[in-house]
Structure formats: C-alpha cells, structure tokens
Specification:
single chain, 360 residues, alpha/beta, seven-stranded mixed sheet, globular, acetylation
Amino acid sequence: MNPTKGGLAIFSANSNPACIELARRIAERLGVELGKAQVYQEANRETRVQIQESVRGKDVFIIQTISKDVNTTVMELLIMVYACKTSCAHSIIGVVPYFPYSKQCKMRKRGSIVSKLLASMMCKAGLTHLITMDLHQKEIQGFFNIPVDNLRASPFLLQYIQEEIPDYRNAVIVAKSPSSAKRAQSFAERLRLGIAVIHGEAQDAESDQVDGRHSPPSVKNMAAIHPSLEIPLLIPKEKPPITVVGDVGVSERLALIILDDIIDDVDSFLAAADTLKERGAYKIYVMATHGILSSDGPRLIEESAIDEVVVTNTIPHEIQKLQCPKIKTVDISMILSEAIRRIHNGESMSYLFRNIGMDD
C-alpha cells in the first residue's frame, strides 16, 4: 500500500471480517487507506504478523475487536504492537473498543487480577496510548502507565432510544441490579424518564467454604491464639426474592429499557424480563455497549420475553444476529475515528467527554 498521508497509519489486527469492516469504516471517515498487514495462524497455531509497509516515524493506530477466541486476538494485538515498535513507529495507539478480561479486575480469593497483567503486557509490547470504550470498571485505567481514553457509547444508545423506540417518553429505565443503578440513573436523567431497580436477582455465588478460609485452626495451634481474642464472624449473605423498586406497570404502552455495559450470560436479563412482564411491562428492550452473547444466548433471547436487544459493534456478533433477529447493532465508528483524528493532530480529547460526569 502507498504510505498513508500525514504520517498516519491504520491497521486491522486480525482477519476477522467484523474487525476489518470497523477498521475500514474508520479509515474512510479519516480519508486514509487501511494499512496492509498479514495476520494469520500457522499450522502449529502460532500467530504470525507481517507489516507490509513502512511505519517508520508514523502514528500507528491498531484496531482490534475481540472475537470468540479471546487469547488469540490478544496475541495478535501484542505481536502487531511489537512489530510496529521494532519497525520504528513514532507512536503506537491501540484501539480496543472492548477491553478483554475486564471482568477479572478485582482480586477474588486466590485468583489474580488478569486485567492488570494484560495492561502490563500491552505496555511492555510497546503500546504508547490506548483507546477503549465503556470499561467494565473505570479503575482499570490505573493499571496502565500510558494514557487511556475510555470513550462512552451512551450518546449513540441515547440517540437510538429517541429515534427508534416509539413513544419512548412512556418508558422506564431499569437497572437489572443495584450495581448498575448509576448507569441507569444517568440515562433516566438525560431522557427525563423514571427509573426502577431490580433487587435480589440470581448471582454467581462465591462460596468461601471450598477454599479453606473457614477451616478451623488445628488443635495444636489453639494455644497460640490469645484467649481474649475473639474475631467476630461476618454474617453470610442471603439473597432476597426478586423485587422491583419503582413503578413499572402504570401503562399498557410502557416500555422497559434494561441497561448494562456487557451482555454475555443472558440468564440475569431473562429473569429480569420475566419479572417485569409479570408486573405489567408491555415491551422490553435490553441495551448494552458490548454484546458478547456467548453460548446459547441468542437462542434464549429469541425465545424470551425480551422484544429487542441493542448493542454496539465493539464486538463482532454477526453470527449471533443470524441466530436471533431481535439483536440490533449501533455503529460507534464515528467516535473512534474522531478520537484517532484528535490524537494524531495533537488536539484536546475533552470534546468527546463533554457532559460526562464522574458517575457516567
């Protein structure tokens, strides 16, 4: 390929059609050609990357969407970043709309904080800047020692609600758990709508009984414990029955919009939809930034009370859409291309974060 103009080069980090399509849309918006590179798996499943043009002294933007084979896509990104580093690129910016392993960002028992490990690997490979979208926890930005721009998909989802949901002003924004109440509140305040919160939904139990934490001290060590030391035990949690805080059945036309950042395991969404239907909801929409929709998720959604699932194209889900026509896609290439343009030109990124509060 001819060198891209202005010292800007854009590459797709894998051969996934959805990733190439997103990279092509971004390149078209910026008026540049998509960089040429070969990314493939050898017979022994090793990843090989070959940059087929000069990137010396350029600002290189590597776009990577996370496919079903997460570990392979991570290696593709790391190897391409390192290839650009050893080819003397001026800067290497990763455009990773969905940051993988983002749910593993807290220490759980004897586990590990995998997102911290991945951040260290990216920085070590040569990444100088990261553009991502709607991190599962905003604190993940602190795992990097490079600049991180955590863009928001909410303007596109709000636009979809206003343009595609009939009579949306009769809707109620629903948080499927107390932990997502702030996100739901943000949408409700911007749309001037009511809010409801579902409490008591089934969650993955974290049993401490199986890892030895409740093991009593052995008899030979009892004497080592001070007789006056009585450590109070934390009362175990008991999940209450599913309840809905807020009025969700005041009108036959009422639409319920369930919000979250990721939709992967759909069981909690299905349980929320059934609960809302029992309380008089007429139509139920589910909206999320990242539509992972793994396993039997599409089939379960198609057979459920959910009327429509709206996600962005941060993650490829073309196969899931064939399995479930209820899934709709919102394109976010516009904000990614604008972020790339501003970084390349040395402009402020604050415009892309206008009207975004600390809780958004």
